[in-house]
Structures are given as structure tokens and as C-alpha cells.
Amino acid sequence: MRRPLVVELGVALLALATGWVALFAWHGLIEEPGQFLGPTLLGGLLVAGTGAVARARRLTWYAALGLQLAVLSLFVNAQLASAQSWWHVVPTRASLERTGQLLAAGAEALGTQYSPVPDNFPGAHEALMLCALGLLLMLDLLACGLGRVPLAGLPLLVIWVIPISLLDAGLNVLLFVLTALLFVLLLASEQTRRVLEWGRSVAGRGRRYDSLDQFVSGSSVRSSAVRIGLLSCLVALVVPIFVPLAHHRFGTGNGPGPGDGNGQSITISNPLVDLRRDLVRPDEFPMLSVRTDAEDPSYVRLTVLDDFTGSAWRPSARDLPAAQSADGPMPDPPGLLSTVPGRTSQWQLRLFATFATEWLPTPYPLRSIDVSRGDWRYDARTLDFAEGHGELFTGDLDYRLTAFTPDVNAIALDDAFLPPSSVREAMTVLPRNLPSVIGRTAEEIAGEEPTNYQKALALQDWFRDSGGFTYSLDRAPGSGMQALADFITTDKVGYCEQFAAAMAVMGRSLDIPSRVVVGFLRPQQTGDDTYLFTSDDLHAWPEMFFSGIGWVRFEPTPAARTGAAPSWTTEQLPTLAPNPATGAPESTAPKDARADRAADARNGNDQQGGSDRALVPWLGGALLLLLLAMPRLVRDTQRRRRLAADTDPRAAAAGLWAELQATAVDLGIAWHPERSVRQTGRALVRRLRSRPELQASLEELVRFVERTRYGRSFEADPETLRRLRATVRTWSAALTGTVPRSRARWARVFPRSVWSRLGAAPVVEGSARPDNRRSDELVGARR
Q1: Between 93-112 and 593-603, two packed helices, what is the crossing angle to 10 degrees?
Q2: Rounded Cα distance, 694 and 699, in Å
Q3: Residues 53-81: tens digit of each pLDDT
Q4: In the chain, how many H helices and how many E strands?
Q5: What is the pLDDT of residues 329-377, one digit of tens each?
Q6: Of 12, 61, 50, which is closest to residue 755 (Cα–Cα)?
Q7: Edge-to-edge strands, sheet with 366-371
């Protein structure tokens, strides 16, 4: 049943609304999601409108899809490279290169950066917009073009799976419900259309009746479909509550705050309270023994202090569900790309009974862990291990793990992009009453440095070397705001707690995500690959976040206590040599390829490799020729299939008659589907009355088609089928001779039958011409 434009447009807009609302689930993938959601909506409106008009004009689904792709290509080109396009819309060689650069840089950013990707990555919003438009186009094709609304749930499923796979946060319940309701309405509209097609139309009344003359109400069909859909939506929301595997699937994710953690929300006491006490004990007692093949078994963590209250650094409330137990593989560390190389090492650890702790000592990061006793669980944000019930663990404990040491270097840290906003907002929080001297001092020391890495390096060097600080345990514990202000201005004497806390606070004041870690510094080697950590090895240090590498350790405590600083803080950055041509400084180090591509895309740099640039016009020309030749190729394929040597008379007759009909449509000769085969044959004979010798062959074809449709089954001899195929070819050529040459040539290049639905118009009562499309000529019209 052909639907008017307003109905087609309404269904297309409903499909668009369903997909676009679902796309709000992607808001956590990138900062400033409105920058891709807005253009996506505009492009989706173009897709929906183009498809609705094409379907209202009764174009085939692939013809409508071709038009949608063409409009979408122009839109994407205008969005990404309008300055390089003709009239800001028509693609050019420069616009194609610009578009390719942006999409390549954006795809790399989305595929490699920690979510949400910062908005300073060029092309990230554009690449996400292109993916979203592709899914909306698929949704429109399935729901509107092919009329397979249930299958349209597949692109919606893809939209939902992406954030579930990449983000820690669960699904938003309100967003899920709204998307489900819109999808139910889409299902209801399609089912209403299908039910109404069963009825017949009565002219002048606008109603439809079934075979028993019962009035078919569209509103009753829609209301039933909506009720069923609402019930299904309610079941989908209620059932997961009682399914254990669905626990925590809906929610706001794991963030700082109370969190239920499978009913377990623990807030522990500050480990820094016991740090100085254990360091100044006169008796050194063993705490942890290790056997490992690691090159440097130092800096073993106990816990992460990521909440600065103003009086002290403390661990934030941990979310410790039972599923996150210390048994098996570990998730990837936040911010660390899987492409970063490194070394793995095997560890066998033993926790002594003399060490009662709520926190399990481990290196960072881990690939896997296996603990023999205890209910140890990890928080997904910090990846430190706490006792699941918040109790002290006592007694000997043996456990194994696989650690990973990433290769960190100064160039990678210096080239890192800004951290995502979710990390910056949570890990740069400072009390409002922070003494101004702390931030002012940080600005004086590192505020002029160009990158976060160089700022962090300046702070570390100031604490270790140039700031005049002294390491000493002869200081009262504490890292409150006033204590830190005194430490960095006048006292300048302290131990690791003050150094780590002060650098983390000053880092946050410079907008660098920072936190404090408590653990063990460096063990005593007791044999081949065996080490012992004692109470004298307890230590605190700061960590700072860098996109692509994650949390990186720095060491502000003077060398008298810690020895050499981390290697990535002592490497020399590339020096700047003068450019011989301009005299301006120019880096002598090789640039990072990823940074090069991002800079090229950001600046619209057209400097590409000669071979790649030369291929662009050839590929574009080849693609254009292929698109132009596609209708003719499709039509030739259809003709060969219809005229194939089929031994089944019914299949052969259907193909021969369909080919004759397609030829008429290609030539602009209207073919009325309400006419019988014999009426159509007579009309064709009248059209070619100047060639009476062809009448007998067409009458034979008409009788053959009628016999296959209305008579008993029979077998056709090969000679008859060969003769009928020749008849179709002869009459196709003859019909071509009845139209102007220009129309015949156009029919060969762009055949109408490829774009139209042959015989799709229904025969309805009270309709004189079911196919009310404008036609250039009629079969049987006098010339």
C-alpha cells in the first residue's frame, strides 16, 4: 500500500527520534557530546526527509538508499570541509583530503584514548558523528525502507552496546525507557499499516473494511500495539532486578561517593596516620616477602589516597562488589592504552602475620592475581585491593600475581593530550579555603611551563633540589592545608607524607589530576630474586594522570631517602636547534606520528605524501564512474536473469512478462497493473500497428503467460521458450523505436525500472487509475 508523503515523513521522523534519543547513551564517550549530537540530528533530518520523499514517489528501497547516501555525503562534506568545497557543499579534491585527515585523526583518538575523549582531539566529534549517522541510516533503511521494524532493533542494540563495552557507567534507566517507548510506537505504526492493508478501500469514504465488511480501525490497532509494547518495556525493566547477572547494569557507575558495592560500602581510616609511627619505631619488623623476576621490585602499593578533605589525604569510599574479587584477570588500568609496550613479571608474595592490614600490597598495574585466603576486592577506579568487609586481615597470606611495567618516557609524557574532563573534575578538586600561598607558589614554580609533564617535572625538581627542602622524621605527622602552606614556605622540613601531599595539592592547583599513594619504597634483597619489605620501607608518593599512559609516579622526596628519581623524570627532552632558513628554533627530535596527524587535521594541513595525494582524484573518478554505471549494470543483470533458460513454464513466463514491462517503464510508457495480460497485449499491438508482422509473436507470448497463470501445469519444450525469449527481445527493440532517440538513450543510461516498484500499486475498488503517477505516454495511446 502506497502511503502519502505526510505518513512516510511521520514514520521516518519517528525512527529518527528513536535512534537519536538512544545516541544520548554515547555522552560519556567524548567531552562536549552536544558537538556531535547536534550535527547528527541535522544530518538525520536530511536522511529521514530524503527517504520519505523517495518512498512517497514509489522508488525502490535501493534507489531511496542511493539518494540518502548522496545527500548524506554532501552534508558530511559541508560539515567537515566546507571551506575547501565548491559553494561550501560540493566535494573537491581538497575537501576530500581534509575530510580524510579529520576522520583518520578522530578514529585514532576514539580508538586509543581513554573515555571520555577530550574535546581538544581534532576529528573526534566528526568521526563519532559519522558513526552515528551511519546507524541512523541503517535504522531508517530497516524500519522505513524495507518495512522490517523488528530488525531495526539491531542498530539500536549496537548503539547501546558501545557505551556498555567502553564505559564503566551503567545504562541510564530514563533514557532506556524513552528509547523503548519510541521503538514501541515505531512497531505500532508498522503493524497498523500491515493490518490496514488487509482491508479494502471504499471510494469517497476514506475507510477500510475487511472481507466480512467489518470496519478496520487504525486507532484500535495502534492502541493495542502500544499496550503490548508498554507491557514488554515494563517486563524488561523489572525482570533484571531478579536476575543476579544484571546487578549494577543500570546506575551511575563507580565514582567517588557512597556507592553500595553489592551492599558493602566502606570508608577506612587514613593510612598516613600510621605511616610515621611505623617509620620511627626503634624495632624494624618484617611485613612482606617477595620472589619475582621483575627488574626493579620497588614502589609496591597499599592504597590510593584520592580525596583531599583539607585536613588530610584519604581514600575515597570504595565500591567493592563481589564480582571484583582478587581472583583472575584484572581490567586495564584507567588511561593506559593497550598499545603501550612494556614488560610482564611474575610475583610470589607472602604477607606476614605481624602485619595486620585492610589493604593488600601489590605492584601497579596488574594483569592477573590469585589470592589464597580472604575476601579481597578491588575498586575499578583505583585498582587497589581492600578487605571486603572492612576488617583487618591477620595471619600469613600467600598469593601470586602477574605485573605489567609499561615503558614510560619523557617524550610520551610531554606529548600527552589533556586528561578527559571526568578525570580532571574528580582529581583536581581542592577545598575552597585552600591557602592562596599554595596555588601562588605552584604558579611561580611551574605556571609558565608549556605542558603538564613539564609542570610536574618543575615541581619535583623544586622539592628534590632547588627548593631547599630537607628530609627528616623529626616532624609531627599531618598534611592539612595550613601544615602544607607552612611546609612549602617556611618549614621546608618533613618526610614523605608532606612531600607527596604537597606536590599532589600543588599539582591539582595547576589543573593536573593528582593523588597520593601509600605503600613500600624499596626492599632488601635477601637472595636470588627474593626480597623483604619491612616497616622501614613504608613510603608515600604522588601520582599524576597523563592521557594514554594513565597514572604515573613522581618522586618529590629528596634523594637522601629515595635515591634516584624515576627514569622518565631524568630524561632530557629534545633540544631546539635553530632553523637554517628562518633562524627560529626547530625540534631536532623525530615527531610522534600520532601528534603529526592530529596537528595536520587541526590545521587543515594539505601536506600529504605525493603518492597518497595522487591517488585521491583517481579513486574519486573511479567511484564516480562506478556510481554512474550502477543503474545500467543492475538493469543488465535483471534482464539476463529474466531471460535465463528456465525449464519451469511459470518461472519463465513471469520473467519474460516482467522484462517486457521493465522495458516499457524504462521508455516512459505507462504500464497499468490493473489490466489483464490480454488487455495489455492488445494495447501493445495498437501501439505498433505499423508493424503487423509482430502481432502473432506477441499473441503467442500472451497465451503462454495466461496458460501458466490460469491453466493446469504443463511442460514447455525448449524451442517454445527460445522463441518466446526472441519475441521479448524483438518487442523491446520495437518499443524503443516508438520513442524519441533522446529518451531511448536516457533509458539505457538511467533505466526507470531500476528505481521504481513495478506493479506495486494495488487494485482497489472505486479507483479508475490505481497508478496515478504522471506518465509520458500510455500503452496503446495513439501517436
Answers
A1: 130
A2: 9
A3: 988 888 888 888 988 999 998 898 888 88
A4: 24, 26
A5: 999 899 898 889 999 999 999 998 878 888 999 999 999 999 988 889 9
A6: 61
A7: 327-329, 366-371, 397-406, 342-351, 286-292, 530-534, 524-527
